[in-house]
Amino acid sequence: ACAPYRRLSLCNKNLVKMDTNNNDGKAKHDLLLDVCMAAKYEGESLNTYSAQYDLKYPSSGSSFTMCTMLARSFADIGDIVRGRDLYLGKKKKKQKGKKTKTKKNHLKKNLQIFFKNILDKLDDSIKSNYKDAPYYYNLQKNWWTANRKTVGKALTCRAK
């Protein structure tokens, strides 16, 4: 099985390039901005991929190809943010004496840093609900639930 066109480029945008060195206390806002920018670019890119999808799968005959692609991209973004992404990513070539890295691993590390920064700014009474460091799956899930509508708007704002 291959990753669909829309999925191959999703992590190449803002999600991998997030700046995690910003410790000004705005991690949750910075994360939302980066996720929304990636969603916006993803929605725009689907305009070109829909033609390729229609050529590759002519029997689908659906007039809702774009809607399906948007829904799947939205699910992919949600899976990435919540730490449930199954796509392994392309491996970079090994450098002498160094481990092979994937964009997924880089993204996973960035998300851990962001969610640690978000957790650090929460009240102690709230922090006690999130004892799953260093992965922060519960915090990631709650962040996604709180921000999914905003991300959805960003994804669909430029899609045709």
UniProtKB/TrEMBL annotation:
A Pfam family of this chain: Duffy_binding
InterPro entries according to UniProt: Duffy-ag-bd_sf, Duffy-antigen-binding
GO molecular function annotation: host cell surface receptor binding
Domain Duffy-antigen binding, chain residue ranges per copy: 1-159
Superkingdom of this protein's organism: Eukaryota
Annotated signal sequence range: none
Chain segments annotated as transmembrane: none
Gene3D superfamilies tied to this protein: Duffy-antigen binding domain
Annotated Gene Ontology cellular component terms: membrane
Name assigned to this protein: Var-440 protein
Organism of origin: Plasmodium falciparum
Lineage: Eukaryota, Sar, Alveolata, Apicomplexa, Aconoidasida
Encoding gene, per UniProt annotation: var-440
